[in-house]
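User: I'm putting together a teaching handout on how sequence relates to shape, and I'd like one worked example. Could you take Regulator of G-protein signaling 7 from Goodea atripinnis, show the sequence you're using, and then write out its predicted structure as tokens right after it?

Assistant: Happy to. First the sequence, then the structure tokens directly below it.
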Amino acid sequence: MKVSKVADSLMTYTEQFMEYDPFVSGVEPSNPWISDDTTFWDMEASSRDPSQQRVKKWGFSLEEALKDPAGRDQFLKFLESEFSSENLRFWLAVQDMKRRPLQEVSTRAQEIWQEFLAEGAPSSINLDSHSYELTSQNLKDPGRYSFEDAQVDCVVFFMDAHDLMFS
């Protein structure tokens, strides 16, 4: 029974992404994996005019929208219209902090705290009291994952906003 559920899930995923797979579908211009023509990648990398196919892919999941720079920009514009863009800016700042050299993490963590979580912060985000307490405790000895609980709160909000944006 469990194997059939996994197989069904894999088939659904494969069918959903089939038209985006350059090995399976014939993409125009030519497949950059087969030919050495990178025109397709250059067209898709352009964040000015994303293709209809690319925009459709953002609707599959929050992850798809956030990993595409143009999708992230459009999601940020949507959140600005809902007066909640600070949540995405916080999440992106924390993601950036996680990729920084370890010696910069402590300073960047304090900057993020001051901008988004401190009392009177210019871009204050809403967190439940439990997440706020855990995050403030984590910042006594800041590390790459000090804001994990706060980020989880933001992701829950994003999922609702994503569904609203693509409904």
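A couple of points you could highlight for students: Residues 98 and 144 are 5 Å apart (CA to CA). The chain is about 65% helix and 0% strand.
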